[in-house]
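CORE FACILITY INTAKE
Project code: CF-77B
Contact: R.S. (postdoc)
Sample description: multi-component assembly, two entities in total
Requested service: structural model of the whole complex
Turnaround: standard
Below are the sequence entries exactly as provided by the requester. Do not edit them.
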Amino acid sequence: MQVTRIQTPLTLALLCTFLVSGGAEAQTPPGTRAVIEIGNPDFRPYPIATADVRDANSPNSVPAQAMTKAMRYDFEISPVFKLLDPKSYLANQAKEGMTAASIKFSDWLSVGAEGLVKGTIEQSGGEMKVDLRLFDVASGREQLKKSYKGPATEDEARTIGHRFANEVVFFLTGTKGVFTTRVAAVKKTKTGRELWTISVDGASRSQVTKNGSINLLPAWSRNGKSLLFTSYIKHNPNLYSVPLGGGALKLISGERGLNTGGSMSPDGRKVALTLSRDGNSEIYVMNADGSGLQRLTNEWAIDSSPSWSPDGKRIAFVSARWGDPHIFVMNSDGSGVRRITERGNYNQTPDWSPRGDLIAFTARDERNKFDIFTVNPDTKEIKRLTQDQGDNEEPSFSPDGNHIVFTSKRNKKSQVFIMATDGTHQTQLTADGGFSTPAWSPYLD
Amino acid sequence: MGIEDTVNTSLAKERPRKRSGNRGFWLTAILSLLVHAGIGAAALYAQPKRQTIDLNRAIPVQLVKLGKKRDPKLLPRIYEPPPPPKDEGVALAKEEKSQPTPKDERKKSKDELSDAAKRMLDSDRRLDEALRRVTPDDPEGDPSGSEFGTTTDTTNAAAGYVAEIGRALQSNYRLPEAIPASQRKFLKARVLLYIEPNGKIREFAFVEEHPNQLFMSALDSLLKTVQLPAPPAAEAKRFQNDGVEVVFRP
């Protein structure tokens, strides 16, 4: 609809006055660059339907159900997809086959699907052959087809489901999916704290340490085959490395005092860490084998929690040099220190996104609640991701930069959660509590 | 000198003064007419008499909430927090596959822990106890805000020139039909625009490209042809030197 307005002399005069007086004030502070988002206002995540995976021998076999559930979970937690409710599907799935010609796409179109995932399993002698496909519903064309083989177990079926979901994400977005990655976390025990790894769907866990001591702050090696962590096993909080396939601990740093917050550089050659060997916590860098120690900070106040930028040129860290703990960034040689957080008075646990555009951190707000925030290291713009759901802490980015893992006490016990980087799609991974300092792995395949 | 001569002399003196007054009046009148005509012509040239308003083009505004002004040093708050997770979304993990314990590790009870470890546990417990619930403050906003407002952040209440750029780009943002529907949802590119004081894009540079060539060439074409409004004089240098970042999404 259009409306015509006549320009009157009064409005002309007002316009002249406005122009003479200098116009509007600047909305963004000098030195910062405005960001404009241009897009379709009715943008929706990609609506995808996932049909029940069919087992030729047994329609409701455990592997078939596990595979279906795994793929639906992956599309559910991903912010770029909208998983359509399986209860709404109109298609007669029992009659449909795996080829485009055998699928009645109008039934899928009518429930709003733009993408359709279908799969079959054939079991024989304890092994299974899996056929998984992605179809474009509007054109009725097959877009992606993958075949897998493996033992006919629930675990294997779930893994295959996640692998195919990764393929779908990569086909549609050009970015690798993270559904076969894992999260390392500390779990409280009766005598101390132990390290575990947890699958991204929370369905499987693996205990990494079992020494009855206090093991803290896990960080992944760049190849995902070992964890760096701090342990009190030798009484002093030393930094160790433990291989995930099993094996002895390797001492990385055993300086007097704290040896904590180990963080491996993107090229895997260096480790940044916090040491208090001279009495005060400072940031150091050493070679991955523990040699070549180099001090980066030298302040009266505490400096801790280093996190590398994805290009390895900068390090984010926490410093209380201006009174309250805040997030700072410095070059990887210790030069060019810059304060990044200007708001709040208790900001900690920075984690630099693999995309490089954000640093996630924990902050305590004016209501004494801990929540997850992100800050753009260049513009210093802060966004809040969690609020009014208990204490939420210790964020760690997924390797694609689309998700964040964190701990939350919203259900009293400290649980591991994941969410999209805009704070949506929050999903709980654990139910038995006592978890802290989760760290998302790099790509593992 | 008689009375008549005196009168004639005074009349002779007054006559030129009267003519001079009339000329001044007409000069002023003509000058005034010219000035008014000039202003009128300039106004007609600068502003069309009839201006159309497209009511379908929404202009986003944010009402500032009535209340106490939020301290800019405080962390931001969300006014529509994300919904809590669904119960069925929780996948309960089963304990499994413990890895073999390394040879040099042995089980310890709490009594066997080192003093440093005990101190660490104690400090952790004290921190847990120290976290206390605080009653919410008075409603925050702006003393001159509206009770129907939705935000406390007055700096976001107007987008100014940046919004004008957004509208200009939005109205020219067209992508070819040939891009497959299944790929359209995932197109994304980020570009830096450097804008001259007259609104012309002096230079643009993509900082994030998408592999879809149809999408990229459409953006290239858009940025080469679009005419942006001129920035406010006070901000012109900033937009020319620092530029503005634009994220194109589906």
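Facility notes:
- Chain A touches chain B through 107 residues (CB under 8 Å).
- The two ends of chain A are 55 Å apart (CA to CA).
Invoice: internal transfer
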